[in-house]
Amino acid sequence: MMRIAGYMKYYAWKLARRYLGIGQEEGLDSVRKNWEAIGRHDPLWGVLTDPSKRGGRWDEAEFYATGKAEAARVAEYVRRMAPGHSFGRALDFGCGVGRLSFALAEHYGSVDGVDISKDMLHLAEKNNRFGGRVRFTLNTRCVLPFEDGVFDLVYSNIVLQHMDKKDALGYVREFIRVVRPGGLAVFQAPDGDRGRGEAKSTTPVMTPGGVFTISMNVIPRREVEDAVAGAGGRLLDVVADGAAGEGFESARYCASKDARFPGGVDRRVA
Questions:
Q1: What distance in Å separates the CA atoms of residue 13 and residue 37, rounded to the nearest whole number?
Q2: Does residue 11 sit within a domain?
Q3: Facing residues of 203 across strands?
């Protein structure tokens, strides 16, 4: 009976979305509502959407271990990109439950985690074993709540893809604003959809609280380049990765506002 009710909710959502526009609202408020719901009902799966882990089947130790492995790769990468990099203060943008915030704290003196979901942050605070070295902030605005030039690293992975392109590009500009001269902003975004002709796709997620959505949004590389340059930054590296999953081409960007770094990306390349 519960399964039948679930199917009825799902198809009602599809009809409402198609004919009434429900579920298609734009902007950060829609993002917040969806991720707060997912944060209440299945927060670990909401961060890493492994189909086999849905429904609370992530083991916490295994889940947080993925953050340690990723943070180690990031630390190695920034050492290569910026010899003499200062491992002082890092920003984990879209921190969720702190998977990367805690891991980055093993490499940086302090870490600020920012997220749009208070339910995700509640779990992050509960699991924080680093005291004041790791701080969490709820932010529902397109402006980051930090002064200019205060972070040695700004890091974001599998986050910008879940918001509208204009908001994602606004945050890219914010990354450049809050990173210090000599620091690095390293972030990921889908830059193509493997020829399907869709700039956005939406997947319904059924929870005990109703049907919510996870959206995937393409952010073209040219527009990312323009956002970085317009904020006074300089792209140092663009590397293809598979972080966005099947059906999407994805890129990891590394930017700085320090012209002393060698290399740089030719913005004329498509």
A1: 16
A2: no
A3: 214
